[in-house]
Every structure is written in C-alpha cells, then in structure tokens.
Amino acid sequence: MRITMIGSGYVGLVSGTCFADFGHDVVCVDKDQGKIERLLAGKMPIYEPGLEDLVARNVQAGRLRFTTDLKEGVKDADAVFIAVGTPSRRGDGHADLSYVYAAAKEIGEAISGYTVIVTKSTVPVGTGDEVERIIGAAAPDADFGVVSNPEFLREGAAIDDFKRPDRIVIGSEDERATDVMRQVYRPLYLNAAPILVTRRRTAELIKYAGNAFLATKITFINEIADLCEKVGADVKDVSRGIGLDNRIGSKFLHAGPGYGGSCFPKDTLALLKTSQDYDAPQRIVEAVVAVNDNRKRAMGRKIVHAMGDDVRGKTVAVLGLTFKPNTDDMRDSPAIAVIQTLQDAGATVKAYDPEGMEQAEKLLGDVIYCKGPYEAIEGADALAIVTEWDQFRALDFDRVKSLLKAPVLIDLRNIYTPDELAAAGFQYTSIGR
Questions:
Q1: Which of 397, 377, 240, 278 is nearest to 320 (CA)?
Q2: What is the distance of C-alpha 291 from the center of its chain?
Q3: Residues facing 3 on adjacent strands
Q4: Res. 190 pLDDT band, cuts 50 70 90
Q5: Which domain does 362 fall in, by range?
Q6: Residue 37: inside a domain, yes or no?
Q7: Which residues pair with residue 365 across a beta bridge?
C-alpha cells in the first residue's frame, strides 16, 4: 500500500520505516529542510537502536523516501498518517494541537481519491472530529475517512514494539477506513497481534489512559520505596513479591527517581486538562503528577544528604542524563531536576551519558561534560548513578574508589546491591533499601 507519514520525528520515522520494512511504499514528509537533508544523507535525527540500518536498507530497496513536499507526498496515498508533535501548551498544559490541525488542512488540500487520514500523534479526545471537520472544510468534495491509531512505542525498543506489538488499536467511524487499516497492518497477521477496533474517541482515550496507568504504577512503587526505607524493608523484594501476582505484573515496578520522557509527563497532564474540560476529575492522576514532580528534586536532596548534608564547594559525578537508557531523549528527564538541585546547593557537577550529552547541553548549563564514566568520576567527592545504562552496571569498583575523593556512591536505579558495595568499601545509598 502507499503510505505517507507527516512528521519525521520519533513516531513518524520509526513507524514509517517499519511500514516500509513490511513491504509498503512509504513517503516521510517533514517541513524541516535540514532534517530531511540529513535523512537523505543517512543521518538519523534521533538515537534509536537499529534504526539507522533499517532506514538505509529500505531506502536502498526503494520502499522509503523523504521529502519536504507535502502535496507530492500525499498524492495518490492510500493512508496518510499524522505523526507531528503535540507538546504541552505553555500556560495551561493542554496538548498543543496546532501542528496536527495545520497538517490536516494541508492534507485536505492535497488528497485525491479515497484516502484514510490517520492520527498517529497522541491527541486528546475529540481531536479526530476536528481533523475531520478541517479536512472537509478544506476539500468539501474530498472522499476520505479519519481514523485514530495511537502508538505504543517504548524509546529504546521502538522497532521491536512496532513489529511485535501487544495490540493494534484502530478507532474508526467508517467501515471502509477500517478495512484500509486492516490492510496496512496485514503483515503483522503472522505475529497474531490483536487488532482492537473501537469508536474513534475511545481509541484516543486508550492512549492517555494507558500511559496514566503506567505512570501511576511507577509512582506507586516509588512511594512504597520511601516507606521501605523508613521501616527497614527492601523495595526490590517488595516489587518482586507483588509483581509475581498475575493481576499486577512485574513491569513498571522498579523504584527510581521518577518518570520522564516524551510521553508520561505530557500525557498525564493532557489527561488532567481533558478531565477538567469534561468535569470528570481524575484525582489519582492528579496525585501521580504532583508526587512525581516533587520526587525528582527530592532525589537531588537525597544525594546531598548522602554527602553529609553539605555539598557547597564539592563535586558530584553524575552518570546518566537521559530519562531512560538506549535513547538520547532528555525531555523531562529526572537528571535535570537532580542536577539543578545539586547546583542550587552549591555543588559542581561532572556528567557523562553515552548518547544524551548533546541534548543535555541545551538544557543544563555550568555542567562539566566528560568523555567517559571514569573521567567524570575522577576527582569527584561522590558518584551518583541516575540512568541505568548497561555500561554503568559493571563499573570497576577499585578504579572508582581510587578516582573518588571519598568512597560515596548514590545509586538512584538500584543496579547494585548493598552487600557488594559494602564489601568494596563504599558508603552506598540506594532507593528503598
């Protein structure tokens, strides 16, 4: 099938490339001339394991193309996916839908023949109705359907998530559009991925409800971790104990410095704004957002406390800046608040991240960015692990201790055990233990 992806950011690029790998003819459109030029040169605008090779393979096969010309890209397409950004709007926290609506207008002016327009961007309930109205106003005689098809991609594992999904959600009011979407996803038939067809507004809400639930699960175990520290319990054992219950499950029960990234912070806030608009308060999600925001700076204070409650004039080595491993995404990363709290307390921060330093430099000033973990550790008064990249899981303890001014290690991801760090001679602080 002929597929057009409007937006070549994280969702658009990964989705478009995977569709091409299924055998579809895909055009990715973006207004950013520089981004398209880099993609044409084989340079990825994001870091995602395996993506660069997958793009190169499908470009070479002629199934994947890039352009800034939306009209040409949309022409003769069977399905046009809107995968543009929906950031939180400044001032009120609502999702900024200006890019979605602008894309819808341009699509309406460019489509020919029956076309399915698919909102892949994460959008509030009712957005599909407005997209339908905009396209109808731009092209009164156009023959089209509007579908919601939310994405469920985890950064760092997006390609596998797309090709082996837990589910495919199609929100549609038009049986003809539903049939087109079944053909789009037909290559996943052998994977037996369940396709859930719902009303369009239901599909839009599924995405927000899913992310809010996962954010709640993370925040729940983080608060349990605080209780564990007070009563002398071990949060890792508590997580395992409750996660073995099939009704609960083990995923997203790892205590840490709070959630971040491009989805959970934005989507929980947007859900709250929608609930206010419809007078249906979401008190649990309100508490989740507040607790998570407070936790990030609390983790900075935890480091200060581990260093004797006074870090003025001291240096802290921070390993890990991105909100999770295997991405370069710094959006709402806990490391931002942690480092700012340390700086506010008078500390100097040396930092290293395998992929995120270019993005971090745009957000965090007065940080000494290093070329490797041991360079960051050298001469520091303490080491703090903030993101659990694999290369931080097997540090040479003897070397670390020789480089630090004092053997102080704060592990905000619980990647080590208290016993092994005590045996290595460290003053070790972790979460919920």
A1: 377
A2: 19
A3: 26, 79
A4: confident
A5: 293-429
A6: yes
A7: none
Please count the other Cβ atoms lying within 10 Å of the Cβ belonging to residue 37: 12
pLDDT of 360 reads: 97
Selected catalytic residue, list 18, 28, 228, 263: 263
In the chain, how many domains are there? 2
Tell me the percentage of the chain whose pLDDT exceeds 90: 95
Does the pLDDT value for residue 257 go beyond 90? yes
pLDDT (tens digit, 9 = 90+) per residue, 269-295?
Answer: 999 999 999 999 999 999 999 999 999
The answer to whether position 249 is within a domain reads no
CATH code, domain carrying 384: 3.40.50.720
> What is the DSSP code string of 201-247?
HHHHHHHHHHHHHHHHHHHHHHHHHHHHHHHT--HHHHHHHHHTSTT
Neighbouring residues of 355: CB distance < 8 A, sequence distance ≥ 6? 47, 322, 326, 327, 328
Q: Report whether pLDDT(92) > 90.
A: no
* DSSP per-residue codes, 237-254: HHHHHHHTSTTT-STT--
First-to-last C-alpha distance (Å) of the chain: 53
Q: What is the mean pLDDT of residues 342-364?
A: 97
| DSSP-derived secondary structure for 301-318 | HHHHHHTTS--TT-EEEE
From residue 373, how far is each of 6, 151, 164, 294 by CA, in Å? 39, 34, 34, 28
Round to whole Å and give the CA distance between 56 and 77: 22
Res 93 pLDDT > 90:
no
Q: Across residues 179-202, what is the average pLDDT?
A: 91
Token digits for 56?
């190169």
**What pLDDT does 182 receive?**
96
User: Alpha-carbon distance 144 to 132, whole Å?
Assistant: 9
What is the spatial distance between Cα 415 and Cα 394, in angstroms, rounded to a whole number? 9
Predicted TM-score (pTM) of this structure = 0.92
Is 392 a member of any domain? yes
Contact predicate 156/324, CB 8 Å:
yes
370: annotated active-site residue: no
Show contacts of 297-300: CB within 8 Å, 24+ apart: 297/337, 297/338, 297/340, 297/341, 299/257, 299/258, 299/334, 299/337, 299/338, 299/341, 299/386, 299/412, 300/337, 300/338, 300/339, 300/340, 300/341, 300/342, 300/345
pLDDT band of residue 165 (cuts 50, 70, 90) is very high
Percent residues over pLDDT 70 in the chain: 100
Mean pLDDT score, 154-158: 93
Rounded to an integer, the average pLDDT of 102-129 is 95
Residues 15 and 121 in one domain: yes
Q: Indicate whether 276 belongs to any domain.
A: no
Give the number of other CB atoms < 10 A from CB of residue 285.
23
